Amino acid sequence: MSLKLPPSAATPASATGPRPAAGPGRPKDLAKRAAILDAAARMFTQHGFEGASMDQIAAEAGVSKLTVYSHFGDKEALFGEAVRVVCASLMPDDLFVADPSAPLRSQLSDIAKAFFAMITSDEALATHRMMMTPGSDERVRQMFWQAGPERTQRAFASFLEARVARGDLDVPDLQRAARQFFALLKGDLHTRMACGLCERPDAAGVDTHVEATVDMFLRAYASRTPVQT
Predict the structure, then answer these.
(1) Which residue of 14, 110, 150, 156 has the lowest C-beta tally within 10 Å?
(2) Quick check: 109 and 210 in contact, CB under 8 A?
(3) What is the mean pLDDT of residues 194-216?
(4) Which parts of this chain are annotated as the region Disordered (predicted)?
């Protein structure tokens, strides 16, 4: 899971389209929020949760520490929101909408490629190492899990449920199947990358890995009963 914010990712979705009239401070507040989240993502990735201070984040964002607290309350809430925003920007909700007009394999591949790109970025690997450091705060690991991986697994389980309802899949345990899918995508490749033992595969290698994962998943869960029309 990367803590690097893509352009405009820190801006709430409602800020990207037409906005209702509001007080004169509203656009500035949205810009400040985005700057704080972007700065927080960089500081947490570089220094870890304990090493990054609210003073550093405020200075990096170009705002006062009071402004940071007024937007997010405390460092724990800021960390969780930074993780959530990054996750939602790289794997948005519409990625998990079961499109009846799209082939199941194609949708699974799109989800898999987005997930693999997210977890194998330099920032994501740095965050993973931070989480695995002995003595790291259990509260921080829990916040990271809830804002990132848990959200992704829950969204994918909902996607699977919709495809089961259509008769495309036969999945007796949706949560287990969701965990299996992402575990297959990580495989030993993610572990070796996190340990610095290999580089990220090229585009062809990523495609091969993703398609092999989707093949295995479908062999386990594709419906054997023809869909009634």
Answers:
(1) 14
(2) yes
(3) 93
(4) 1-28
Long-range contacts of 206-210 (CB under 8 A, 24+ apart): 206/113, 206/116, 206/117, 209/116, 209/185, 210/109, 210/112, 210/113, 210/116, 210/185
The domains found in the chain, sorted by start residue, are: 13-86 (1.10.10.60), 92-221 (1.10.357.10)
Instruction: Count the helix, strand and coil residues of the chain and give each as a percent rounded to the nearest 5.
Output: 70, 0, 30
With a pLDDT cut of 70, the percent of the chain lying above it is 85
- Within a 13 Å sphere around the CA of 99, how many CA atoms are in the beta-carbon half? 13
**What residue has token string 């724990």?**
76
Torsion angles phi and psi, residue 46, rounded to 5: -75, -40
Q: In terms of pLDDT, which residue wins out, 180 or 88? A: 180
3-state secondary structure (DSSP) of residue 53: coil
